Structures are given as structure tokens and as C-alpha cells.
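Hi there,

I know you've been waiting on this one. I reran it after we fixed the sequence typo, so this is the corrected version. Both the input and the resulting structure follow.
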Amino acid sequence: MKILVAGSSGLIGRALVPALKADGHEVIRLVRRPASTADELPWHPMAGDVPLDACRSADAVINLCGSNVFEGRWTRKRRNEIRSSRIDATQALARAFAGGDGGRTPPLFISSSATGIYGDRGNLELTESSGPGNGFLADLCRDWEAAAMSAAESGARVVCLRTGLVLAPDGGFLKRIVPYYRAALGCQLGSGRQWMSWVDIDDVTGAIRHALATPGLSGAVNVVAPSAVMNSVFTRSLGRIFGKQLPITMPRLMLRALYGQVADEGILASAHVVPAKLLRTQYPFKYPDLEDALYQALASAKAEA
């Protein structure tokens, strides 16, 4: 297959591109700078500058664009940047599926989303059929998916990846929290009863490759491991791996003082998400168990502890 990937420099893109090439696919990366290699094409989505010919000759377009949601406080300016980085890019790519002149359009559009669409839902088990929650993240993901689903109007199969907390050795959540555990400062966050729906980076790339190969898979797809855990379990697992953890909790008020709205929606929110569609289509999870995934992702970090 000829596959265009936007957002290839991010956490998921860095793992996905080599995996797709290893599968034998031709991968073209859309980059927001002059092309420096034969597998790159420049584009400027904010200006509506998209290489339509390349998009329309592809078998699939994968959209992984989006700035880091958990970087900095959610000021009005930052919220606008987060929305623009996702929705503007998605709308620009979705327009490539419109055809316009009646020519060929790509049959498959895989676009990022996040489990943040469910909001704070306590102990409720959430599948793809569950409705969206409330808050900035839920509204963002709902609009993000709507922009992607517009490509379905032209007959494309659209898959929206509702990705959970990604565990990876070279970035994301673990990169932020591991230094605290290395310094013996790791601890439970808030009540510890909030559900954390996590997924190993290998299963994120695996789920995308599964979507490429599974014609019956469309719409929202929860990309999470089948074994969500509460924060108390997650932090105890990290403590066992590093052999040290503070016997206290980080109070909700302190988290809110440090991170503002990010704490309420990104750290303290509870979402017990189930990968119903991946399980139904028999996706073989490589890391269904949390501690196995943590050991794999943290092998180098633990060696330095």
C-alpha cells in the first residue's frame, strides 16, 4: 500500500513509520518544512496547502497531528493552539477525500483522537458506543472526530483512534513521571481511584496496522489495553519496578494548584475504557498486562535508576 502519514515526528509517528516500512508499505511523510528526503512531502495545513495529488493517489492517509495536550496550562491561547493543531490539520486532510474533479480519492482515512472524549465517568465501563463526556478534552475530541468523519461523505472508510495513555520508552507520560520515581518521589495521585486506560506503544502501532488490514473496522476505535487500572494500581506497579515509592498521596488541591484544568481533566479524571472493537475483530494485544508493558517500556530507565 501507498500510505501518507501526517504527524510522523510525534511519539506514535516515530514508532509507526518504521513498522509500516517493515511491513513492505510505501510511506510518504507530510512535513511542515522543506522536504529533505525522497519519502517526504511539504505541506502547510493551517494555510490550506495540502499535496492533493499525493493524497488522492494514496491507498490510505494516516493523521497523527496534534500538539502535546499536557504541555503547559490551558490558557485561552493554549486551548486555541491545541484545537487548531488537531482540527485544522484534520479538516485539511479530509478535504483531499472530496475529489472535486471526480477523480480518485483514497479509500481509507485513519485519524487520531483520544479517550479524553469520555470525560470523567467514574467507574462506568466505556465502549465505542458510549457518548462523549463534558469538558475541554471531550469537546476537542468530539470536534476532532467530526472533522475526520467528513471524509466518509465521499465514501472513504474512516477510523478514529481513541488512544489512551501511551506507554513508550522515548516520550509521553512515562518520560514525565519516571524522574520522580528515580528520585524516590513517586506517589499516588489524588484519591488513586481514578481509572487509567493505558496502552503500550507497540499495541498502538499494531492497532493501526490492524485497521489497515481489517475492512470491517470503522468509526471510533478505542486503542487501549483490555486491562485498565486505577491510579493506585498504576503507581504501585511503578513503585515495584523502581523499588521505591513515597507512602503518601499527592493531594488533589496541590495537583490543581500546579496544573490547573489539566489536573482535573488529564490527571484526576476517571475513564474505564474498553477496546470493544479491537477485541471483536480479534486484534492480538502484545502487552495486555500493565507490568509487562511497564517493564518493556522502562527497561532503559530502570537501568539508570
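Quick highlight: The first strand starts at residue 2 and ends at 6.

Best,
R. S.
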